[in-house]
Specification:
480 residues; alpha/beta; TIM Barrel; Immunoglobulin-like; 2 domains; six-stranded antiparallel β-sheet; 7 helices; globular
């Protein structure tokens, strides 16, 4: 049996294991968020940030505990990860100078209670606003980031950690692994009382050269340790891990949440669509927790960011996903609420998706790969259904750009589309509604009758993407 959270804690839905349950009710996790440095950068006003998420109908965020910083200029518009003098870590500073990021080195024998006070306050504030916090313990390291990690041999007075970045996510350095386990235990003890927490072990564990088998064995040891820690604590929480080629815990009952990143495969990461296609059968929630960043600089969205980001989320969630966490560089030290006209549109799109899904009894629905038999024009199709009662079909016309740094995002392919679908519905009468996903307005509606065989459906004209809602005219109660 898959390990689940305690009752009331965010966990696997007991009616449908592909979705979440929180405080005894069904919940979708949808957000476009800053989910790196909200706690470890003291200059960041996380209260304004969390208030903005709540105000815009977003209920999910992801944070790092300060084991990875980005000192390079990866995003010129948002330097939140490059905290500089405002960096606060789980470990206290020593009296010895020489930390590469400025100031004194860290003392691994002493915790910084200022950090943990900030972490608890952040999580408590999120709880008050019904925002779920995914705490990602570690990150893969690379040559320019690892010297800034407090667990680098040159960053702490104990000299723990070594200097080889690819060894950080292996069992090779027993002393380092012991410190990593100590940190996990401390973080779990400090946050165990909160119902709104998910624990993720590591982001992108093999992205920069660690061998898959080494990373897998290291993560497995951390999972065992985390389970042992919680065995002695009042509450149990979901354990999550990102899927990478060669590092896949889909069929491991210890891990209750599967994590994908980006829309396609790149950098050894399993993209969101592949995760649904290959791991849905393991009956666990699947989430996407990282995409190309909205409002980043440089901007990797090569066409309309609002349309592109909407399609990523709609395709995944209407294909059976449980949660979607989009990177958003608009939340900065100077603008913690992410106020921006583009964000206004992005957030509105997320609210529309939530309204659309919650207009159905989505927890009774599962991934649908059988209803649509053919489409007369090229495009991508996803869907969920409850046979004979309710169906959602989502069509879009985008492609990934294989000439760029990786296949991380969609490029909209605008046109005047009027496809004919061949569908197979259970016998009965249905109300079919074609919807504009940008504002949820109805494009067209009709009553159809199915005899149980293949039938043709002509779609109204649209320029990029089209959700179709099909609901039986009797016996289907909507609303979650």
């Amino acid at each position: 049996m898959v390990r689940n959270a305690s009752p009331g804690v965010i966990g696997i839905n007991r009616r449908n294991p592909h979705y979440f349950e929180y405080k005894g009710r069904d919940i979708l996790l949808l957000t476009s968020a800053e989910h790196y440095a909200a706690v470890f950068n003291k200059a960041f006003d996380y209260k304004a940030y969390l208030d903005a998420l709540h105000r815009n109908g977003l209920n999910y965020t992801r944070i790092y505990p300060g084991t990875k910083l980005l000192p390079n200029d990866i995003n010129r518009k948002n330097d939140t990860m490059n905290a500089g003098a405002n960096f606060i870590a789980p470990w206290a500073r020593s009296g010895e100078p020489g930390y590469v990021g400025g100031g004194n080195k860290f003392d691994l024998n002493r915790w910084d209670e200022g950090f943990f006070g900030r972490l608890r306050d952040f999580t408590a504030r999120a709880y008050e606003l019904d925002i779920i916090v995914e705490l990602c313990f570690f990150n893969d390291q690379y040559d320019t980031t690892f010297p800034h990690c407090p667990l680098h041999a040159g960053a702490n007075i104990q000299g723990v950690g070594g200097t080889e970045c690819t060894a950080f996510t292996t069992l090779a350095n027993a002393v380092l692994v012991a410190e990593q386990k100590k940190l996990i235990e401390k973080l779990m003890r400090e946050t165990n009382g909160f119902d709104n927490v998910i624990y993720e072990f590591i982001d992108e564990p093999t992205l920069y050269g660690t061998k898959s088998a080494d990373a897998y064995n290291w993560i497995s040891a951390l999972i065992d340790h985390a389970i042992a820690v919680e065995a002695g604590l009042p509450k149990k929480h979901m354990l999550a891990q990102q899927m990478m080629f060669g590092v896949d815990f889909s069929d491991d009952d210890r891990v209750s949440l599967l994590v994908a990143q980006y829309v396609s495969e790149g950098g050894r990461q399993v993209g969101s669509w592949a995760a649904l296609a290959n791991s849905y059968k393991f009956n666990k929630p699947i989430e996407t927790n990282e995409t190309v960043s909205v409002l980043s600089e440089p901007n990797y969205y090569e066409r309309d960011v609002v349309d592109s980001s909407r399609i990523e989320m709609w395709e995944f969630m209407l294909g059976g996903g449980a949660g979607f966490n989009q990177l958003n560089a608009g939340f900065t030290v100077l603008n913690p609420s992410g106020a921006d006209p583009i964000n206004d549109e992005v957030f509105r799109g997320i609210r529309n998706l939530r309204r659309f899904l919650e207009s159905m009894d989505y927890v009774k629905m599962t991934r649908d790969s059988r209803t649509v038999r053919e489409m007369s024009v090229g495009g991508r199709i996803s869907g969920i259904y409850e046979a004979g009662k309710q169906y959602v079909i989502y069509i879009h016309h985008c492609f990934t750009n294989f000439s760029r740094w990786r296949e991380t995002h969609y490029l909209p392919n605008y046109g005047a589309y009027e496809p004919v679908l061949t569908v197979n519905l259970e016998p009965g009468s249905y109300d079919m509604t074609f919807i504009n996903p940008a504002d949820l307005t109805e494009i067209a509606a009709r009553r159809i009758d199915s005899g149980g065989g293949d039938m043709k459906i002509e779609c109204p004209r649209y320029k990029l993407d089209l959700p179709i809602k099909i609901v039986a005219t009797h016996g289907c109660q909507t609303g979650s």
